[in-house]
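fyi for ur records
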Amino acid sequence: MKRKIDLNSDMGEGFGVWEMGNDFALLDYIDSTNIACGWHAGDPERMKNLVGAAIQKNVMIGAHPSLPDLSGFGRREMAITPNDAYNFVIYQAGALQAFINAQGGVLHHVKPHGAFYNQAAKDLNLARAIAQAVKDLGKDVILYGLASSCFVEATQELGVPLWQEVFADRRYTSEGYLVPRTQTNALIQSEDEAADQVLRMARDGEVLSIDGSIVKVQADTLCIHGDSPSALDFVRKIKPLL
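which gave:
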């Protein structure tokens, strides 16, 4: 049976005069966008403009909330409570939701960014708090979370829709987590290797970990990192394969 895999991309990750990625061109190839809300990157003008462009191109719009870490691009772990996690999502996603509502759109999903995402993937209490925030943003809002992680149990408990996410350009540990970016082997540099990994996850529901073991994954949505210089070339290559 054929099944559809959503292609998503993190966007709006510039700030002020600093640009990152090729966002508006990528919108022609993806199904959903995760728009930075200002805490790791992004600003009100970018949020407004990307929302308008996504609505015009019928791309589903999601919020990409982060830890409050602008100088570290949201990639540094912080000691936070579940209450912090809830507030971080409501505050940032609520700001984006206002821009969406003002232009006649709908908030489709929330995908945490960077260290916020990875910490919650391993911490059930943080995952629950994020899931509760998503639930409170609207009954039809979806949470995008790492496949086979704490996000699965948290969303099942709270009755929140979850799209389990896989990554083309990241390597996996034997526990099913992403290899930290601080390690030299965290990123897949070869487009061919990344494409092979995507097809294996999509077709067989599994990924090869860094120690050679097989990790089972459910691929509902695939992340294309918009901040990568080769993102546009890669999505043009992978979409026909899928």
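The first strand starts at residue 6 and ends at 11. thats all i got for now
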